[in-house]
Design brief:
Length: 196
């Protein structure tokens, strides 16, 4: 659920994932196959989408559909495998849908999700694992203040193959320091990464 204090720019809004948009979601997945390439494995059937929506209702996951001003599904942002206690951390996954990639919507939406994660949900750290060749995704997290922490060979299995990933992360302290800069990212190339 998105807090009432999170104001999206007029060009987009966030909503919790739901089956109400199932037809639109599956159509967006189909037309975005080339865009996603080997970087993303999205739910691509009604059953897979239903399982994803159920998972996003679990306390260990947060999910957001990125919706344009004209009520079109532009992308997805997830915070997965949230660990509480002394860790207070989660793993970030995200992807844009064609034809909305490259319009800066994911940058804007990600700023809102970071605000939700750090202020409303009390997380201390978010980690994004990005394939080294995914320059658009690395540029997105770099703009938002994430720092590269390391490299993990054969880290995630995506589209049937174990793939290398760079680990990028941001803490609440870094996010707070960058607060005046959070309007960045408009018009940048939208990025995509695993949606697990």
């Amino acid at each position: 659920m998105i807090s009432r204090g999170s104001k999206a720019p007029a060009s987009l809004r966030l909503e919790p994932p739901g089956m109400r948009r199932a037809r639109e979601f599956l159509s967006a997945v189909e037309r975005s196959r080339t865009l996603h390439g080997r970087f993303v494995q999205t739910p691509d059937s009604h059953d897979a989408l239903q399982a994803y929506v159920r998972r996003m209702r679990d306390d260990r996951h947060l999910g957001y559909f990125v919706i344009t001003a004209s009520d079109e599904l532009a992308g997805v942002i997830n915070i997965n495998e949230i660990v509480r206690g002394a860790f207070q951390s989660g793993y970030l996954g995200y992807y844009a849908f064609a034809p909305h990639a490259g319009r800066g919507l994911m940058s804007q939406a990600m700023q809102i999700v970071l605000n939700e994660a750090f202020r409303r949900h009390g997380l201390h750290r978010l980690e994004a694992n990005i394939q080294p060749e995914n320059d658009a995704s690395k540029a997105l997290v770099r703009r938002l203040g994430f720092e590269r922490e390391g490299f993990s060979p054969r880290y995630l299995k995506i589209r049937g193959r174990w793939r290398d990933h760079e680990r990028w992360a941001i803490t609440v302290e870094t996010w707070r320091e960058r607060k005046p800069d959070r309007a960045c990212g408009r018009g940048g190339k939208a990025a995509q990464e695993n949606g697990t």
